[in-house]
Amino acid sequence: MLDDSADKVDGSPMLVASDSTVVVAWSRAAGGSDYDLWYRKSTGGGFGISTQVIDNAGASLNPSAAYDGAMMYAVWNYAESVINLDSYDIYYWAITP
């Protein structure tokens, strides 16, 4: 369990690994307002803290991720409104976790 706070809803998890490093990414709704992307990394000694990838007013959903041992790459669907999920854009992100 990544976070058991009552005001958070986590979903769409992705798990990627390279050698002894594991990275998990997911969508999170905090307080029911919007969905943002988060990730956590483990290098064999347990998972570190949750880190927010993007903070926006819409819905970041359906993440897909890859990790090459140095960089983590993620793509996801983004809708400007959590009320109207009919119109999505595709977003991309790369980071050294």
Q: Could you tell me the radius of gyration in angstroms?
A: 13 Å
Give the helix level as a range of percent. under 10%
Helix-strand string? EEEEEEE
**Overall mean pLDDT score?**
80
The number of helical elements comes to: 0
Report on the structure:
This protein is mostly beta strands and 97 residues long. The chain has no helices and seven strands. The strands form two sheets. Strands 1-2-3-4 form a four-stranded antiparallel beta sheet, with no helix packed on it. Strands 5-6-7 form a three-stranded antiparallel beta sheet, with no helix packed on it. It is globular. It starts with 7 loop residues before the first strand and ends with a strand. The mean pLDDT is 80.
Any chance you could write out the topology, listing elements then pairs?
Blueprint: E1 8-18, E2 21-30, E3 35-42, E4 51-54, E5 59-67, E6 72-79, E7 89-95
Antiparallel strand pairs: 1-2, 2-3, 3-4, 5-6, 6-7
Structure characteristics:
single chain; mainly beta; 59% strand
Give a summary of the structure in a few sentences.
By secondary structure, the protein is mostly beta strands. The protein has strands at residues 8-18, 21-30, 35-42, 51-54, 59-67, 72-79, 89-95.
